[in-house]
Write a structure and sequence with these properties.
alpha/beta, 2 domains, six-stranded mixed sheet, 16 helices, 14 strands, globular
């Protein structure tokens, strides 16, 4: 079975489970971990497993992307949009009361303060410039929590392009506010009623549409999909760690933290947070994936913890699947993290021991979110709350002089209905 003719969705490999307990740590920091090889692999993960009908589209995208990266005019236009439209740089905020609670020094990278309310605008603006460069006018996207959908709809409105966003019906119902934003921005939201009606299913439908309309430009929102998409999204999100280095230098007179923490679904904000530190052995990196009701409950999205090697949506990764290779439907209270796979780079980082991964359950994420609101006056997206949940897990490892940088990937406006249902009583 060739990479170009394989099914869009997944297949099962006869490979043993790769739970975190079986992953061995390496200290080889000479590997360029933030860069895939020329076939799009991070170690054994990644690649381009796509049908023949998409081969031309993907090859043209690859050529356009690497040409644009080398063009100073493209980078200048991109950074101009980031500054004057998206509002970058996002602040690196020293969370004084949160730091006191955990007896360390916690800095929050405030991606929630970007235009559209999350880190997703970084990638949407970059890819819309690629689309314009390639002469594309019809844009398609998938979305889970709706943040990528809103960011894509925003970029399309800015550039006067047609926008179609595929979104699982379950997510349409629980992310009503973001759906209305997309409608207001002129996007057409297509509710998906297959499967569990969440992000996986939205991605399936987006790919089907792309196959039928190969002249469309597919803006993938995370570090997933066939090569070169994980590399593209990582590149456009790398501005996060680029800014962290500069901001730390300004605030503490060194450009690296002791710890980096971010949530991981597909892994775009995490990749952006880690990008410029992956080869720096001074920095410990911790990822938070969605534990749901617990990794042994059958209601989880903790792919790295419970996944096995397989192929989904055009790339090889760790995948939640049964012994017959059928995808296990993920569950998380977070619409942005309930994906049954994980970006190939993150699977590789875990395999290599470069990242430590915690599964943060729903209740732990909610507790962490309410703690942040009460201590710092910041209401995070539920996705970001999973990263905050790592603080209690790692508390005993933090030293008083450690510098911990945690990315707040988005704001909690979209999650207020969920938060209201879970609101703790005031004492």
């Amino acid at each position: 079975m060739s990479e170009l003719t394989i099914s869009l969705f997944c297949f099962k490999e006869n490979i043993a489970r790769m739970g975190m307990q079986k992953i061995k740590t390496t200290s080889n920091f000479n590997i360029k971990m933030n860069q895939p090889d020329n076939k799009g692999y991070y170690g054994t993960f990644g690649g381009a497993y796509i049908p023949e009908i998409l081969h031309g589209s993907v090859e043209r995208l690859k050529a356009a992307f690497y040409e644009a990266k080398a063009d100073p005019a493209f980078k200048a236009e991109y950074y101009d949009l980031l500054k004057h439209y998206a509002g970058r740089p996002s602040p690196l905020y020293f969370a004084k009361r949160l730091s006191a609670a955990y007896e360390t020094n916690i800095y929050l990278k405030r991606e929630d303060l970007n235009h559209t309310g999350s880190h997703k605008i970084n990638n949407a603006l970059g890819q819309i410039l690629l689309a314009k460069r390639m002469g594309k006018t019809r844009i398609i996207a998938e979305t889970g929590a709706g943040q990528h959908g809103v960011a894509t709809a925003t970029a399309c409105a800015l550039m006067g392009m047609e926008c179609i966003v595929f979104m699982g019906k379950t997510d349409v119902d629980r992310q009503f506010l973001n759906v209305q934003k997309m409608n207001m921005l002129g996007a057409k939201v297509e509710p998906v009623t297959s499967g569990n009606m969440t992000l996986k299913d939205a991605t399936n439908e987006a790919i089907r549409y792309w196959c039928s309309n190969p002249d469309s430009f597919y803006i993938i929102g995370s570090t997933v999909g066939p090569h070169p998409y994980p590399d593209i999204v990582a590149y456009f999100q790398s501005v996060i760690s680029e800014e962290i280095k500069l901001q730390l230098k300004e605030q503490i007179n060194r450009d690296y933290p002791d710890y980096l923490i971010a949530c991981v679904g597909g892994g775009s904000n995490a990749m952006g947070t880690y990008y410029h530190y992956l080869n720096d052995e001074r920095v410990k990196i911790i990822s938070a994936e969605a534990g749901g009701l617990g990794i042994d409950s059958g209601e989880t999205a903790a792919t790295i913890q419970v996944g096995t090697v397989g192929i989904i949506h055009g790339f090889k990764t760790l995948l939640m699947q049964d012994e017959d290779g059928q995808i296990i439907e993920p569950y998380s209270i977070s619409a942005g993290l309930d994906y049954p796979g994980v970006g190939p780079a993150h699977a590789y980082f875990a395999e290599m021991g470069r990242t430590k991964v915690h599964a943060i359950n729903d209740d732990e994420a909610l507790d962490a979110a309410f703690e942040l609101t009460r201590l710092e006056g910041i209401i995070p997206a539920i996705e970001s709350a999973h990263a905050l949940g790592v603080l209690k897990k790692e508390r005993s490892n933090f030293k008083s002089d450690d510098v911990v940088v945690l990315t707040v990937s988005g704001r909690g406006d979209k999650d207020m209905e969920t938060y209201i249902k879970q609101m703790p009583k005031n004492e």
